[in-house]
Amino acid sequence: MTNEIASQQKMQSALRSNFVDIAGTRMHYLTQGSGEPILLLHSVPASAWVWRNIIPHLSSLGQCIALDLAGFGKSGHANIGYTLADQCRLVEQFIAKLGLTRLTLVLHGWGALPGFAYCVRHPERCRGLVFYETWIRPVQGDFLSLPYSEHIQFWQAEKNLKIAETNGVQFVDKMLAQTAMQRLDENLLAHYCAPFLQTGSGKPLYQYLTEAPNGDGTRAADKLIADYAEKLKDLAMPKLMLYNLPGFVTTMATVMWAKENIANLEVAEIGEGLHFAQENSPALMGETISVWLQGVEQS
Questions:
Q1: What is the dihedral of CA 31, 55, 186, 178, to 10 degrees?
Q2: What is the mean pLDDT of residues 80-108?
Q3: What is the 3-state secondary structure (H, E, C) of the chain?
Q4: Could you give the angle at which helices 168-179 and 146-155 cross, rounded to 10 degrees?
Q5: What is the dihedral of CA 275, 278, 279, 280, to 10 degrees?
Q6: Going from the N-terminus, what domains does the chain have, and what CATH number goes with each?
């Protein structure tokens, strides 16, 4: 075992696993550190575990709280539709249940949408916003990257939607192979696949695919994105946008748009990658957020 792997395992062992009941849904979250809360929300098809190598860089600066969205990770499969509206409602109720204020939100991909929605509704409860590989402006066809466009067109086809719903493991395996830019080790892949081992347990994946933007402006996510994007531009709180090259959701055109349109924004490239810098370059991602957070605290 190398010193780097041993060090990572030691840091990961300090993560505490917790459960809380939110409106009949058993929600799981990881915590480490103390102080003002830093809430981390994951993308699809990952879980709170995707932040395992990021949290040690941040836990000296506040209490890190990484939530499993409903139906992902160790959060329960509940009698809900797993719609975007459901996920937004559960995130807001989770924050209220834990009594979190002066939040720093660290947002990724699909999980960023509930985070953005909360932030623009309750800016007085938030002190900072970090976002990576997500939608920050209304989605039109020519805004989509080629990798994301191919991904969403393939999986929104009716026969493939059915595969995602009935055989979620196949979707997870294919999406991670496409977007992580490296083959994940078997134990890590098994962790991300675990919620979807039972036949028919892929409803959260199916719902993501039916609601995710594809450029035609008709998906459930489009209205939410349009709403928070307009408000996000003028929010006074400090913001950090992270991006990879070439990226999966975030294009260079979107990076340039953000620089020109979003107030109080810093932008940082975190190396080569598509959608999972947490797996490709966790040290660079963690250190970049840490340095930014320290600057926010000193301002």
A1: 120
A2: 97
A3: CCHHHHHHHHHHHCCEEEEEEECCEEEEEEEECCCCEEEEECCCCCCHHHHCCCHHHHCCCCEEEEECCCCCCCCCCCCCCCCHHHHHHHHHHHHHHHCCCCEEEEEEHHHHHHHHHHHHHCHHHEEEEEEECCCCCCCCHHHCCHHHHHHHHHHCCHHHHHHHHHCHHHHHHHHHHHHCCCCCCHHHHHHHHHHHCCCCCCHHHHHHHHHCCCCCCCCHHHHHHHHHHHHHCCCCCCEEEEEEEECCCCCHHHHHHHHHHCCCEEEEEEEEECCCHHHHCHHHHHHHHHHHHHHHHHC
A4: 170
A5: 70
A6: 3-141+219-298 (3.40.50.1820)
Q: In what order do the strands lie in the sheet with 103-108?
A: 16-22, 25-32, 63-67, 37-41, 103-108, 126-132, 239-246, 265-273
Per-residue model confidence as pLDDT tens digits over 146-197: 999 999 999 999 999 999 999 999 999 999 999 998 889 999 999 999 999 9
**pTM of the shown model:** 0.96
Alpha-carbon distance of 274 to 271, in angstroms, equals 10
pLDDT of residue 87: 98
Sign of the CA dihedral with 253 first, then 122, 102, and 263 last: positive
What is the residue type of 219? R
